[in-house]
Design brief:
Strand 4, helix 3 and strand 5 form a beta-alpha-beta unit. It is globular and about 60 Å long. The protein is α/β, with parallel strands linked by helices and 336 residues long. 50% of the residues are buried. A 7-stranded parallel beta sheet has the order 3-2-1-4-5-6-11, sandwiched between helices. The protein has a two-stranded parallel sheet with strand order 7-10. Strands 8-13 form a two-stranded parallel ribbon.
Length: 336
């Protein structure tokens, strides 16, 4: 099976590439903007005609799109997350290769959900920020393309390679600094948020399964269990061997930033903002909360209904959160 992978250098794309390379039945071709891609092509600026000619030459059976942006303003997010997918869809429609498309979406497309609920694929999307809007627009393009296509809505990916700007990445860095400086107390904010964390390697397995399946439409990829960031922090402290205390700072309402919806790549309020020798000042609190604690526009709670992935892909998550956090910590500890 010849597979064309787009975005192999990204956080998810690297693990998808590893998974595909481990399958002896897969002939992998990588398309991207970097010098290490087999074919250099910028989806945000390249023409559908040029991509069509390449598809006709390579004739892949499956196209997997892991490319996209999590940082930048609405215009940049639209270019890389929406226009790029429009180019892929139009090129596949023009091409004679008949390839199946596996598009990576995200849970930010859903927006906030009711605490205690599990979000199924038929939920009405209400994205709470420009990132979710751009990804939802891409999903709608795929679903309306008439192609043999599936969109995997990935919830909160974690594990090795977790971006340093993500909440868990920043938490690991804050703990590393506390251990390095000998601080016995770590002051944190925004630990009440609950998310469905799924290991990035399990996401790669889901992409592989989707490429081999006949499933179409939207499929959630998560664990089906929301975890409070406070509990994730406690697990991380245990695997790191941090003997200090975790103190959650309640941020006064008047000090919270009025912008309620950011995007996953920017700094968040989840950070060390004090030490056992000093109380957090108003300036520290304001700086730590310049963005909301989990800026994906999804509010305080998000949990996936993963029955469709089980039934249509034969996929279940295998790696538990403690193992994912241990791998995040291993990378952070290398910087001590």
């Amino acid at each position: 099976m010849r597979v064309l992978l787009i975005g192999a250098n990204g956080y998810l794309g690297r693990y998808v590439a590893d998974r595909l390379l481990a399958d002896p039945a897969v002939q992998l071709t990588v398309l991207g903007r970097g010098d290490d891609a087999d074919v250099r092509f910028d989806l945000a600026t390249g023409s559908p005609g040029a991509l069509t000619r390449f598809l006709d030459a390579v004739h892949p059976g499956v196209v997997i799109n892991c490319a996209g942006a999590t940082r930048g303003g609405a215009r940049e997010l639209t270019r890389h997350n929406t226009v790029a997918v429009a180019t892929i869809c139009e090129s596949l429609r023009r091409s004679g290769c008949g390839a199946r498309l596996v598009q990576l979406g995200c849970a930010a497309e859903y927006g906030p959900s009711q605490p205690g609920s599990s979000t199924a694929e038929d939920a009405v999307p209400r994205p709470g920020g420009p990132y979710g809007v751009s990804k939802l627009a891409a999903t709608e393009l795929v679903l309306g393309s008439g192609l043999d296509a599936v969109v995997l809505r990935v919830f909160s990916p974690v594990g090795p390679g977790t971006p340093a700007g993500s909440p868990l990445g920043r938490l690991a860095e804050a703990m590393r600094r506390a251990m390095q400086s000998g601080d016995g107390e770590l002051k944190l904010s925004g630990l009440g948020v609950q998310r469905d964390f799924v290991d990035v390697r399990d996401v790669a397995r889901a992409v592989h399964a989707a490429s081999l399946s006949a499933a179409q439409g939207v499929v959630n990829i998560g664990t089906g269990r929301a975890v409070r960031l406070r509990d994730a922090a406690a697990v991380l402290a245990r695997v790191a061997g941090y003997g200090g205390s975790l103190h959650e700072v309640d941020v006064p309402q008047h000090m919270q930033h009025p912008q309620a919806h950011g995007h996953p790549g920017r700094p968040t309020g989840l950070a060390a903002i004090g030490s056992p020798r000093s109380e957090a000042t108003a300036e520290q609190l304001a700086a730590a909360t310049a963005q909301p604690p989990y800026p994906d526009g999804c509010g305080a709670w998000q949990q996936a209904d993963v029955r469709t992935a089980r039934d249509r892909l034969g996929w279940r998550p295998r790696i538990n959160l403690e193992e994912s956090l241990a791998d995040i910590w291993m990378e952070a500890a290398c910087r001590i």
